[in-house]
Amino acid sequence: MTTRYNIRRAEQEDSDALLSLINDTPQQGSIRLNFERSPNFFHATHTATSVPEVWLMEDNQQQRLVASFSIGKRYVFVNGEKRLTRYGNDLRIHQDYKGGRILFRLFKKYRELMQNDWMQTVILEENIASINTVGSGRLSLPNYHDAGKLVTHMIAINQRNISANNNIRRACPDDIQLLQIFFDKNAKKKQFYPYYNFSKIGSDDPFYRNIQLDNYYLYFNDQQLVAVAGLWDQKSFKQTRFLSYHGNMKILRYVNNFSSKLWGGLKLPSPGSLGNYVSMHSILCQDNNPDLLEHLVSHVLSDYRHSNYDALILGFDQQDTLHQGVNNFKRHSLISNHYLASYSEKIDCLYHPSVPPLMYLEPSRL
Predict the structure, then answer these.
(1) Are residues 143 and 160 in the same domain?
(2) Are residues 99 and 180 in the same domain?
(3) Which of the four, 14, 273, 288, 364, has the lowest number of CB atoms within 10 Å?
(4) Distance in angstroms (rounded) separating the CA atoms of residues 43 and 85
(5) Strand partners, 285
(6) CB atoms within 10 A of CB 176
(7) 302-338 pLDDT, tens per residue?
(8) Cis amide bond preceding 363, omega within 30
(9) Which has the closest alpha carbon to 91: 35, 16, 29, 157?
(10) Are residues 246 and 127 in the same domain?
(11) What are residue 316's DSSP bridge partners?
(12) Distance of alpha carbon 82 from alpha carbon 197, whole angstroms
């Protein structure tokens, strides 16, 4: 007798089926979003994890994909040390299969794979269904430990009264060593900061897909490097579709867009269209100084004011003072919950005395 459901490791040939599953499982909230992965599901997976591990569940009777999840690994700084760490994302269950024992079967596989390990995962605060699921206390689910909140800003490109800064310039190949030294000194000061090897930028390493060295901005003060940020256009492999608006957002979208047309600001895309944005990533400021970030953002907006982008995306720990660096820009913000999930009652890196006071999550690598 053939078992109805089968859980197996995903292969490259499963990309189209996984893309279809994504299209059938949008993120709910006042703005209904779909995080797409066209043209190949695995291109974005490789930028989220340097050691991908995607699993899927099939219904053998119906010959269709039921669910998927990713539980790959990537190097991040944990307690100041580089660590290969699991990141859980792309948990998708088709609407026709929600309920019953599907979730139990999936997390039984999670338990088999994770053993005593733990993983990071991020859930939009408005995604109530997912948050209620992880907090349900079901025996099959891992323990989800609160590990802070991420605030992601969508900053309007068409800001007025912005200017470039003569102390800021784009990186060149001669800057690789300088970038690496600055990064190695400062990145480990924040928990979960992703590790970067700047010598691999521009290579065929899929973790750095479409990242260009000259899209890094370097801020100097008296010839000393004091701040760094890169820009990353991911539209060729990762997209955000604004499917629909609900509740007050239906009206607020029209009010917002009318105001933006008159005075500048972020326009919310029409239902069904893709967001047109560029991400600011690997942000590091000496002494975590928000003034340095404000100058970087202003300089980038000045550079891109005549581009076809609508927004600049960046994000930080909710407690991070760097948020002060974007206070003067017109923007829309989203809050996400960050968890460390495991089948253990306690995760040492949440309580160890050497834990950095702030975390860092890269919105472009979620």
Answers:
(1) no
(2) no
(3) 273
(4) 19
(5) 227
(6) 18
(7) 999 999 999 999 999 999 999 999 999 999 898 999 9
(8) no
(9) 35
(10) no
(11) 151
(12) 12
Query: Residue 348: CB partners within 8 Å, gap ≥ 6?
Result: none
Sign of the C-alpha dihedral, residues 323, 278, 74, 130? Answer: positive
**What residue type is 146 in one-letter code?**
D
Q: Which backbone phi and psi does 210 adopt, to 5 degrees? A: 65, 10
**Residue length, the chain?**
366
> HSE of 30 in the Cβ direction (CA atoms, 13 Å)?
13
Nearest residue to 280 via CA among 154, 126, 125: 154
Structural domain including 122 reads 5-147
What confidence tens digit (pLDDT) does each residue in 58-95 have?
A: 999 999 999 999 999 999 999 999 999 999 999 899 98
Q: How many domains does the chain fold into? A: 2
Nearest to 161 by CA among 293, 330, 322, 314: 330
Q: Compute the distance between CA of residue 310 and CA of residue 297 in angstroms, rounded to an integer.
A: 14
Beta bridge partners of 120: 87, 340
Same domain, 91 and 114: yes
